Amino acid sequence: MDFVTVWEACLAWINLNPGLASWVQALGAVASIWIAWWIAHRQSIKAERAEKRIDRAKCLAISRMISYVKGVYAAHGSMTNDPDKMRKLRTDLTRAKDLMDGIDLYSLPDASLIDCVCNVRQHIDDTLEKFSDTRISHHHAVLYRQATLAPAIRTLDAEIAECEKVVKRFT
Length: 171
Prior knowledge:
This protein has helices at 3-16, 20-75, 83-101, 111-130, 140-169. It has 171 residues and is mostly helical. It has one domain: Four Helix Bundle (Hemerythrin (Met), subunit A), CATH 1.20.120.
C-alpha cells in the first residue's frame, strides 16, 4: 500500500463517521484545558521557588548585617580612654546604625527578622547614648569592656541565631 491509498482510506472512513469531528473537537478542548492548567501550575511553582530564594537571601543578608555589627563591637574590645578611640567607636557604631536603619522592615519576609533588626537598632542606640557624653570619658573604656561588650555580643549572637532559624524556614 502506498501513502495515497492509505490517505484515501482514512478520508473515506472520516466521511462515513459524521460524529467523529465532534469527538475530536471535544478531546482537543479537554487537552488544551489540561495543558493550560499544567503550564500555569509549573509557572506558579517556579514563582514560589523564586520568592523563597529571594526571602532566604533577605534572611541571610540580615544575618550578615548583624554579624557586621557584632564585628564593630568586637573590634573595639581593647578600648582605652583615648578620645580618638572613643570617637572611632561612636563613628563605627553610627555607620552600623545607618546600615541597620537602611533596612526596609516592610520588605522582610518574616516578623522574627523585623524583631531582630529592631532589637539590634535599639542596642546600637543604647550604646551610642551611653557613650555620647564626652565629659565622663575617663570611665568609658572600663564601662565598654565590662558592661557593654559582653552583653552586646550575647544579644547579637542571639539575633544571628534567630536569623538562622528563619533561614531554615525558607530552605
